[in-house]
Amino acid sequence: MGDASDNIPGVPGVGDKTAVKLLNEYGTLESVLDNADHIKGKLGERLRDNKEQAVHSRALAVIDQNVPVDYSLADWRLTRLTDGLPTLKKYGLNTASERVRHIARAHGPVETQEQPAQESWQAWETPENAQDVTEFAKGAVDLAIHVSGADLSLARDDGRRMQITTTPQQLDMLSTAGPLTMEEALHAAAKASDQKGIAAHDAKAMFHRMRNAGAPIPPLAWDTLIAAYLHNPQEKSFALQQFAAPDACGVSDLRRAQTQQLQDEGMTDLYNDIELPLVNVLYDMEVVGFPVDKQVLVELGQVFSEQTAQLQGSIYRESGVGDFNVNSPQQLGKVLFEDLGLPFRRKTKSGYSTDADTLESIRALHPVVPLILSYRQYAKLNSTYIDPMLRKVDSDGRIHTTFDQAGTATGRISSNEPNLQNIPVRTDIGRDIRRAFVSSPGHVLVDADYSQIELRVLAHMSQDEAMCDAFNKGQDIHARTAAEVAGIAMDQVTGQMRSAAKAVNFGIVYGISDFGLARNVGITRNEAKDFIARYFAHYPGVKEYMDKAVRDGYANGYAATLYGRRRRLAELKSPNAQVRNFGERAAMNTPIQGTAADIIKAAMVRAHKELKQSGTGARLILQVHDELLVEAPEDTADQVAKLLQSCMENVITLCVPLISDVRIGRSWYETK
Q1: 156, 183, 201, 277: which has the highest count of C-beta atoms within 10 A?
Q2: CATH 3.90.1300.10 fits 458-583, yes or no
Q3: Could you read off the pLDDT of 396-410 as tens digits, one per residue?
Q4: Do the two domains 94-110+120-265 and 458-583 of this chain adopt the same fold?
Q5: What is the CB neighbour count within 10 angstroms for residue 355?
Q6: Which among 501, 512, 510, 513 has a CA at the least distance from the CA of 539?
Q7: Is residue 343 reached through a cis peptide bond, with omega within 30 degrees of 0 on the bond before it?
Q8: Interhelix angle 577-614/276-288, nearest 10 degrees
Q9: What is the C-alpha separation between 19 and 28, in angstroms, rounded?
Q10: What is the Cα–Cα distance from 279 to 208, expressed in whole angstroms?
Q11: What is the phi/psi pair of residue 485, to 5°?
Q12: How many C-beta atoms lie closer than 10 Å to residue 558's C-beta?
């Protein structure tokens, strides 16, 4: 039958059943081939035509046990285990590379042919006890530290380096136990560095390991992951081995290269003043967590489940086709577009598209469609938010999310496991989830939210006179936009006119099209096209800014924020028009959204510092894009609110004022 995975051809048309039948009847391959003339039909013909190929195929499949071997296994003992590391790295075999490194270190310091950037690295030192680690770390002016699996490595600025290896379960037969536990070594290194600071790759994760080991958290002198992110935020991976040797020497070497790199790119101040101190801010926020009332989540889950069940019954009745799986796109598509005859938008091999856009486009055509949309909403609230959050509530009654400082191209911070930044806010039932996020006893939540920060940044960067004037006068920017575009007084602006103006204001730097505007606000495409044209006529500075942003993107190959953060625009070199269009939108949007992200980060660093100095006991617990949440003792709430507002509004001076709306409540819901 052959073996396609090993490129063994066998006899064409013979599968496992036919092969087994032939062998049962004739006993051996030779016997089958000898009797091929007596086998009738196509099978006999194939056997006769492929005799040589069948014999050759078996030869390929059989392990030859008669190869002359003139050496013993002892002759092939590896004395330099890491000689193959450059080849492993070249082909991206990172897991194998790490295993080889670990085995090598477990058998003692082994030099590698992969030369570090600093040629003066000395041989690896192996500590006998925690005191050796302490003395090593104390003697360093700059200490790099890295943990990889069961290995802890340290590197000093004078070229000395130390390796501490513990024994992971899977390598017990290949490695020897280290003299120290990871906890003991981490504690010794951290305590010895608590005044001078350390360099690390992903320092926030390192700090959590130190905390779990009962070690103090030392000052942070450098984080190579954050510097790599600043250099190119669109890297697919920020793992240390993507940039340097995955040990403390690699961290130290990378730090030296990054120092010059950031200076050349004009991002040294951004790194030192915002991104590096933000690591400690986010670490503290992760440790503190957000108090949660589990009972509220449980009750909401029950309500959502009941609503889901009721809606499912209503869907069955309105569709008139009996029971079916509402969660199955195939079954739902058949009901909507075949049984009910509704118009469909797309059809693929797997069936009709039943995504949200499709259902919204036919919402008014049949009463079952809005029921399906509501059903999905309730079902998603349970599966995406309620159930995962209940699982994530820690023993301290808090949810400890993880903040990703290097997860977006624009500089925004993201939240994971669970994502607290993605809790729905546009619907009443979604907002209800925020009732579960509460303050601890004796405390309240102080919530500060920037007002239209991206539009204020746009006004500053474009220097458009009309837009700047509206913000400086404290006017409703959307109403003024609608009034100017329509040529009427602001008090004559209707709700629909303001909605259209708002859609353009917020969509303009994303390259909003007449089609997109028409769909968003319910007007015709010609009306939308005319609105956008009149918008640019009244805000010429905005149009000039957008055009210049695209020109600069093509000329420089990147877009930059007010703080100097860069996003590379490789899309602008693409031969594909759609990809280039995306790059042009990124060129327009990155300076605006990126600057807004820089501002909120700078405000976080400032607020974190001032809250600590205030002695109020208040602590940052969450950031959601343009919003900061602080948990404060009840008797300090007003003081904290003023402090937080001041930090946010005075962190940078623009040509228009930054405004933050501050509210106090016992739950996140109350603050909104």
Answers
A1: 201
A2: no
A3: 999 999 999 999 998
A4: no
A5: 10
A6: 501
A7: no
A8: 70
A9: 10
A10: 12
A11: -65, -35
A12: 19
